[in-house]
Amino acid sequence: MTSNRISRLIISAVTCVACISYITYAGWAKGSDRPHIIYILANDLGWRDVGFHGGRVPTPHIDALSNSGARLESFYTLPYSSSTRAALLTGRYPYRFGLQTSSILSWSTYGLPKEERLLPQALNIAGYRTAMLGSWLLGHAERKQLPTQRGFDYFYGNLSPVGDHLQKVNTIGLTDWFEGEKQVTEFGYATDLIGNKSTELIYAHEISIPLFMMVSFPSPGVPLQAPEQLTTKHGEIKDKPTRTYLAMVSQIDEAIGKIIEALDKKQMRKDTIVVFHSDNGGAVKRKYLSGDGDVEQTVSDNGPFRSGSGSLYEGGLRVPAIISWPGRIQPIISTERAHITDMYTTLLEIAGASLSKNDQVKPIDGINILPALLENQLLPQRTLILNVNEFGGAVLKSNWKLINISTLPTQTELYDIENDPSEEFNVARQYPEIVRELSATLLEASWEMVPSLYLEDLSKPSSYRTPMFWGENPQRP
Question: Is the dihedral of CA 185, 151, 134, 195 positive or negative?
């Protein structure tokens, strides 16, 4: 074993004695042993926007969560919000079913294909109650695309990208706030509403029934908005966009604190897995008009990583991630490479849900990472397709990351991620044999790629705004 390989796993000083009973994993969870699962997503949260990565604003509740479980320092998502959610809920690369390009937008007519088996559907069959709160972003133009038609027993939140966190409208000005399949009027800040409803569901839940609750905060993604009483807490920061952004991050932390408190008071915490991460990297640098003229500001902070949301560089894909399960997962800091598709496989294994070919008809791309979390085992070496679409793609194998930009002028970039995580030095010319190998892998994936539903939808003639599903008694603005 090389020193580089050993250095990929940083472990706190704990023994493996507590992990002996978890030698096998498939179907180990039976009856009341099945844990509750709370899966929390932040939208466009930067790598260094959390306290445990040196963030500019304290995040005590997120930090406490990281101290109670596994901190995954090499966790990869997709560059787009819809793509990440699709990969999480299917365990499959989004290019296999057309969600590899951009996110589903407010005027889009397509959604996550009906043929895909989703995590809540599998957990529902395994006896879980399922709830989805916050940003869905996987289809909203037809009833069949809604979360309540895709395995979630309950839904509360927004279906499409947010245009206003206070007014609850999407990016084309349509009212977008639902409970179940019915549009509702709610007053308040979206983060607070989602956090409060999450705690209500926990307090009302029958703890003998396993619960899967996905909480998908639309913050701190654009638009940058927070109630004035929140922004004034950061009055020492003169730049308004940054002050607002940090207030948004703080409020997510507060909401997470309330969720953990509810689990404690309900005596569910020790039997609950809590997962937290960003859906992709933070937004890149933007220009804001100040009293002194145009000033370039970095609102989100992706730390040492290049670029951000929407990018194939590390800043767009590598996110802060935590998995906490008291008494089962010991506090560790792991640099074992994990992918968003792994969460589907891992959670179904933990829940004892079926992954047989009769139920899981389509092949999955994720693996079960539980051995790394429970027994500190090294994960198998594998090649990750970070994304592939009509404009290029990226693949990661061992220390090597290849990025191909297909749009003119075409470009091939190779980075040694182990030694150059900031992707400053393109070494494609120095290692032509590695470029050929990884390019062949990317090309093979491109042949398997389903045409982009985003591009197909974009090519359709449209003289009006795509209507959103309104449920019974629609009241359009």
Answer: positive
Length of the chain measured in residues: 477
| End-to-end Cα, the chain, rounded Å | 63
pLDDT, tens only, 29-39: 444 589 999 99
- Mean pLDDT, residues 383-396 taken together: 97
CA–centroid distance for 45 within its chain: 10
pLDDT of amino acid 235: 84
pLDDT of 1 strictly over 50: no
Q: Judging by beta carbons within 10 Å of its beta carbon (0-12, 13-18, 19+), is residue 424 exposed, middle or buried?
A: exposed
Q: How many helices (H) and strands (E) does the chain have?
A: 12, 21
Sign, Cα dihedral of 137, 140, 145, 149: positive
396-402: long-range contacts, CB 8 A cutoff, minimum separation 24: 396/76, 396/337, 397/437, 397/438, 397/441, 399/4, 400/431, 400/434, 400/438, 402/428, 402/434, 402/435, 402/438, 402/439, 402/442
Average confidence (pLDDT) over 451-457:
95
pLDDT tens-digit profile of 245-298? 999 999 999 999 999 999 999 999 999 999 999 999 998 866 544 444 454 455
> Angle, to 10 degrees, between the axis of helix 81-90 and the axis of helix 340-351?
30
What domains does the chain contain, in order, with CATH numbers? 32-374 (3.40.720.10), 383-458 (3.30.1120.10)
Strands of 192-305, DSSP E? 211-216, 272-278, 286-290, 293-297
Is 355 buried (19+), middle (13-18) or exposed (0-12) by CB count in 10 A?
Answer: middle
User: What's residue 298's pLDDT?
Assistant: 58
Instruction: Choose among 470, 471, 469: nearest CA to 139.
Output: 469
Averaged pLDDT for residues 60-82: 97
**Neighbouring C-beta atoms of residue 22, cutoff 10 Å:** 14
